[in-house]
Amino acid sequence: SVTSTLITILCLSAPQGVSLLVPQPNINATVAQNILLSVEYSCRGVATIEWKHVSSWGTTKIVEWKTGNYVNISMVYKDRVTTFENGSIQLLNVGMRDAGYYFITVTEEYGTNIYGTIVVNVYEIIYEDLHFVAVLFAFLAAVSAILICFMWLCNKSLHLFQKKTTHKLTASTTEEIELETIEC
Question: Which residues form the Immunoglobulin domain (predicted)?
Answer without folding.
Answer: 24-123
